[in-house]
User: Fold this.
Amino acid sequence: MVRYRANVAALMVNAAGSLLICERATIPGAWQFPQGGVDSGETAEQALFREVREEVGLEPRHYEVIDRREGYRYLYPQGARGKKLRKHGSHGQEQTYFLCHLKPGAPQVNVDQKSREFRAYRWIPPQEFDLDWLPEFKRDVYREVMRDFFRVAL
Assistant:
């Protein structure tokens, strides 16, 4: 039986309509959205607020959640699946995506957080997201997310 770990991701959009992407600290050139696992006892919203605060330094008062969609799934690559199964008890992730609008007066994103998940960030028009920035196993999910939230075909 395939088990999926609950995960949340933030699609953070600024006033100009640009989308926040962050470069993984351990994988130069790999860009993604702030995201992470839902801890035991947390709701998806609580996990979103925690992950965004831990990874990019924004508090819930700095953005508004506009939309939420769930059920996006992917399996970890075969080579990593055993390690992930031991660590999280799952073969892949089932993600809930939240579309968030940055509020006026919000501070700048700060990737120099304790989590050290990211090394850099950028704001890009959604249609400029490049699937080549992702590991292959995540590309179908990102393609679907970009289509569902931004009507962008990647």
Summary: Residues 4-150 form a domain with the Nucleoside Triphosphate Pyrophosphohydrolase fold (CATH 3.90.79.10).
